[in-house]
Design a protein that fits this description.
With about 220 residues, this protein is mainly α. About 80% of the residues lie in helices and about 0% in strands. The radius of gyration is 19 Å and the shape is globular. Bound molecules: fe (ii) ion. Fe (ii) ion (FE2) binds next to helix 3, helix 5 and helix 6. Fe (ii) ion binds next to helix 3, helix 5 and helix 6.
């Protein structure tokens, strides 16, 4: 999602208000105010609420300081998003094309700052949080957390997450994920996820996953 929206920001023609609209619609941060159902920054931002609800309370019992630091990161990331969303919102109202181009350059820079901070946050979660969870929780407990996140999402948002997540997984990761879902979820859930994978994942990779999982 980051690489995609970043490339679009870099190459967008802000003199063209109509052509800029889909990109700017992706730069909200709250689903409640977003125009686009799959608003990209909304999806990125939703990771914070998911973690704080389904993961952090359990991890906090083992390492409250680490969890607190990640929560503070989330708040700082939200403040960056508020700025980006306001800039994106204000940009089309500028009458002069040169002014919109200048605001577009500033918006691109702000978004890059956010993406750098976000990727750094995700890397630190992978380095600190994931090993801690592997040490303290069983696979079953972690699967329950994942199911809680996925099951708690509105269906259309879940579909948008999968449209981005599935093509971003390699064969082994997707096989493990689909295998676990097949083992623990009713067939309609597997069909729902497989349908999105068939549309979005590279056909060769998806064929390999289907053979390995047996779907
Ligand atoms: Fe996080």
């Amino acid at each position: 999602m980051i690489y995609d929206v970043s490339g679009r920001l870099q190459t967008n023609d802000f003199t063209d208000v109509a052509a800029s609209k889909p990109l700017l619609d992706d730069l909200e941060y709250e689903f409640s105010s977003a125009i686009s159902a799959g608003c990209i920054l909304c999806l990125l931002h939703s990771h914070a609420a998911d973690e704080e609800t389904a993961v952090f309370p359990s991890v906090s019992k083992h390492d409250a300081a680490t969890v607190q630091a990640f929560i503070e990161d989330h708040h700082a990331l939200t403040r960056r998003l508020e700025t980006i969303a306001k800039m994106a919102h204000d940009l089309p109202s500028k009458a002069r094309p040169e002014e919109r181009v200048q605001l577009g350059i500033a918006l691109n820079r702000k978004a890059n700052d956010f993406f750098a901070a976000y990727l750094d946050h995700m890397n630190r979660e992978e380095e600190k949080l994931v090993p801690l969870m592997r040490e303290r929780f069983t696979d079953e407990q972690m699967r329950t957390m994942r199911s809680g996140i996925m099951g708690g999402m509105p269906r259309d948002r879940f579909a948008w997450v999968l449209r981005w997540m599935l093509p971003s997984l390699n064969v082994s990761e997707m096989t493990a994920m689909l295998g676990a879902i097949k083992a623990t979820s009713p067939p309609p859930v597997v069909e729902f996820i497989s349908g999105i994978a068939a549309q979005r994942v590279d056909p060769q990779r998806w064929q390999a996953v289907k053979e390995r999982v047996g779907i």
